[in-house]
Fold:
Amino acid sequence: MKPQTRTCPLLLPVFLSLVAALPPSLTGAALAEVTELDSAPVRVMRPIARLPATIADKGAPDTVTLVAIVDTEGRVANVEQVQAATPENAQFAAQLVRTWEFSPSTIAGKPARFRMPVTVALRPGVPDVRATGADPGAYQIDLGAGVLFATFPQYPAALGDAPRKGFAAVEVTVGPDGSISDPIVEYTSHPAFAAPAADCVREWVLAPVAAPGGTPLTVRTSLDVVFRPEHAGWTPQERDLRSRLVYARSFDEGPVESEVGRVVFPYKALLAGETGSVGLQVLISPEGRVIETAASTDSEFTAALLAALPFWRYQPATKAGRPVFASTNMVFVFNPDHEEFGIEETARELIAGLRAGTAPIFSLKEVSTPPRPLAAMAPSLPADYAETRQGEAVVECIICPDRRVRLPKIVRSTTPMLGWAAATAALNMTFEPATKDGQPVFVRARLPVKFSSEPPSDPAPAAP
Structure:
């Protein structure tokens, strides 16, 4: 929340000397508002200025608001409408803003002088950082240590009918862990950009700024948030995804697989002896989860792999010692000889028997006692799955004497991906095996799986 300020009635004597005379560049062109300019001015000069002892010793934070009058050459020639907690704060902020310089601006192609609302945050005890740097994406960052993650801003709905390029300069406090707090919009090319810019930078993570001895510091710095016309058509989900992709290409240490989920080998392909491979680009979150995928092919092999990825875990990529988003490529080979599919001796004998029609598999009607669920894994869909998450699927599988489920086959499903998600969940179930004449046996059963917002229940096996 923006700190409260109050108007100080003692400011008039302080500013009489500042307003006494206007330079010639303020008299040759009409005074415009910043929103009337052909293009948004860019600040090209912002010198560092330390708080004087009279302000720093009091230790009271203040947010000073004023209006800067910028001449046709981009210099701040005057200030007006100053609001501050004390005359000392007002005078210091006005003197600071008068050192700023902007790129020259025009109206209808002619040099223009303009009025720009400005805010200056005074934060005693928090050092100022003004190193020049740039992130790998769409933002200019006034922080030499670098940005680990930043989001694109949400374009304001008020300007959606006629989107324009714009920006806002936001001063923030960067904590020792790189987190952002206390955002104050210093200036903006349009008032509508102020609130989304402040909201945006709260999601950013910056590399901590360290003292010469290596101790992380709490500092103030300024971030430039750029608004582009194409942002106006983005949904919040698309905005978040595009932000992640910008930073997922830059990391010091890449992600490493730590837990690989079991992948269903498509039933028909397995019995036919077919093999294949799938190439994927995956986006991995700082928590080590796959949150976005892009496949090079569209096949049953691809769908089976996508259904397994929600259960994979990674040691996340890192940058400057912190977990970050990472985009990486993977190639997954579907081959019965690979251990990922659990095609061990028992499964191989089943496959040979199914091909020859001699597999010792019973139906539920033929056994003395049916299998009983012991452990189930809730079905999960890829994070970027765009279709309905409501529906059902039926998976036929073989429940074995060793309690494991093998060779799941999709019988029917509301959507193909629901079927593959159900088959993947079935592959990870365990059962008390069915018995016949007191002996555990192989049994074929169908497992119904419902997808809803309610917590899943253990699917009870049914006869094919």
Observations:
- The radius of gyration is 32 Å.
- The first helix runs from residue 11 to 19.
